[in-house]
Design a protein that fits this description.
Largest sheet: 9 strands, mixed
CATH class: Mainly Beta
CATH architecture: Sandwich
Helix content: 25-40%
Structural class: alpha+beta
Number of helices: 6
Order of helices and strands: EEHEEEEHEEHHHEHEEEEEEEEE
Number of strands: 18
Distance between the termini: 36 Å
CATH topology: Jelly Rolls
Shape: globular
């Protein structure tokens, strides 16, 4: 469908979105008096959506696919694809890798609800920019993965799930989106002598893999997947772009951002609750809300106003009473400079 950009975006920029008065009540104290890890940052208010989705021009339901184009530029501003991965066991494996990654890595946005962490290559510290593999393991995880072979397997799993995602979207997404991502990767290839342009910490390993199903009736499917050390290797398929993100129960106020590429892509690998529990993606510039669901892919433009609404759960119970996680490509514009 084609839509014109809204003259009055909802929610307004730099405001948290709550989808009910009950959710607002749960989170109000957090955003007025909660601890700020970065005291230089401002506190933003919560706006409560009116009932029956009155504030939206369109709500994309949890079982609905859609492509939205800007009526003037004809550019895609939102794409939603449900049931993205057709193999339940592959989805389970991918979700397991995401869960492990998000549980073991430091968040890059400590003042936002939930967690958002980097995977792959980073541009280093602002004071000392340098292309390097992300060293963002939490202390307990760093200790557990102190043996080189364990760390290599951990990084290989992360790189492989992104390679799977990348090769799937290469076959499924419109060419204009893929061309944008490929242009950025080619730019890095031209700038980096060492060719550290794919998500692969060990540069000598030019393949990725998915665990083979193990034989035996005494284990569950999940056990068979994660206890196996044998992988079906993909030597001819492409590796993933160099940087990705993993998220858990992540919410963000209405904002826009500058990425290294125009379109960002994310895959929700699991959502535990129904649509009534909030935690949904929105594109405020077009007054669109997208109900999140397991196995959903989103595409959006980072420069357009967007965000994720607050979930219907107390802040202190966010990690125990709600689970929505996934991975994506929203690469930093500093990468490759």
């Amino acid at each position: 469908i084609w839509m014109r950009k809204s003259k009055t975006p909802f929610p307004p920029e730099r405001q948290w979105l709550s989808e009910s008065p009950e959710i607002t009540q749960l989170w109000r104290k957090q955003f007025t008096k909660g601890k700020l890890h970065d005291k230089r940052k401002s506190r933003y208010p919560i706006v409560t959506a009116r009932p029956n989705d009155q504030d939206w021009r369109r709500v994309v339901k949890s079982d609905e696919d859609i492509i939205v184009r800007d009526a003037e530029s004809n550019e895609i501003v939102l794409l939603v694809m449900r049931n993205f991965c057709g193999d339940p066991e592959v989805l389970e494996w991918a979700d397991g890798v995401v869960q492990t990654a998000v549980a073991t890595k430091k968040s890059v946005r400590l003042d936002d609800p939930g967690k958002l962490a980097l995977v792959g290559w980073t541009s280093g510290a602002r004071s000392q920019p340098a292309l390097m593999w992300a060293k963002n393991l939490l202390p307990a995880a760093a200790k557990e993965l102190s043996l080189p072979e364990k760390l290599r397997q951990y990084d290989f799993n992360c790189s492989s799930v992104y390679a799977l995602f990348w090769n799937m979207i290469r076959r499924r997404l419109p060419e204009e989106i893929l061309a944008d991502l490929k242009t950025f990767v080619e730019k890095i290839e031209n700038a980096q002598v060492e060719k550290s342009t794919t998500m692969n910490e060990n540069r000598t390993t030019a393949y990725w893999g998915i665990p083979l199903q193990q034989s035996g009736s005494g284990t569950t499917t999940k056990d068979k997947r994660f206890n196996g050390t044998q992988f079906f290797q993909f030597h001819q398929a492409e590796l993933a772009p160099p940087q990705g993100i993993v998220s858990l129960n992540y919410a963000r106020f209405c904002h826009c951002e500058i990425n290294a590429h125009k379109w960002c892509v994310a895959w929700t690998t699991h959502r535990s609750h129904g649509a009534e529990h909030g935690g949904h993606f929105f594109v405020a510039d077009y007054d669109f809300k997208v109900e999140n669901a397991t196995n959903t892919v989103f595409v959006w433009q980072g420069e357009k106003l967007h965000g994720a609404s607050l979930p219907n759960v107390r802040p202190g119970e966010l990690e125990t009473n709600f689970r929505q996680c996934g991975l994506g490509f929203a690469m930093s514009h500093q990468l490759g400079k």
